[in-house]
Amino acid sequence: MPKADIGNGEIYFESHGAGEPVLLVPGLGGVASYWNPNIPGFAAKHRVIVHDHRGTGQSTRSKIRYSVDQMTDDLLRLMDHLKIARAHLVGHSTGGAIGQTMAVRCPERLSSLVLYATWTRCDPFFARVFEARRTLLTAAGAAAYVRSTPVFLYPDWWVNENIALLEQREKAVIAAFPEADIVASRIDGILAFDRTADLGKIRARTLVLCARDDILTPPYFSEALARAIPGARLEVLERGGHCASETALEAFNRVVLGFIDQQA
Length: 264
Fold this sequence. Notes:
With 264 residues, the chain is an alpha/beta fold.
């Protein structure tokens, strides 16, 4: 169970495979295991690093004010701990916000950037969705929050075809769920995120990827990112929801690995 001491906490991480480093950065749930379906395909040619965000999984459950900048700082310290000077970064949702922040603040640390199912800044729709999820957590508790989460993340057909898997996962997630105030603070942190003024400064070679039926971060967010980031390429999968890396596994791996391999 490797953990990196980053000075004011510990970050759980895993390293798989060998080659050019690729950081697979999870979303709001924050756990490395989100990427389990993708690791074999990526690790066949690359050194793949996954981690649990601070406040989630096996990382330190710090009682702090969470923000995307703080999450980015934690990832940079993890890179330093692993002596990774530069890496490809694939960021899902909140991980994509981290990727935007790193591209603006520390462009020298990125070999390329994949912004997957992420957003530009909080708009009225985004605010309503996450305010509802935050209220569900604080008013009804972790079990209700976790049980409702697949409605936002997965398409209806995938939920129906994988209900036994989802229910098994839910039990494990509820048992290890962080304190509600940590998750609420993480939600507040993403609601405050806004890098729109800086997107035109990003020079990393960038792929923006989403699924057409993503209801949590609808495609208009990805379209706006691709317009704002110089030279960015936009790919829209026909279906897959917010978690297309799992629900459209083969298509996702093909597009993302193809993009990364083009940067060599």
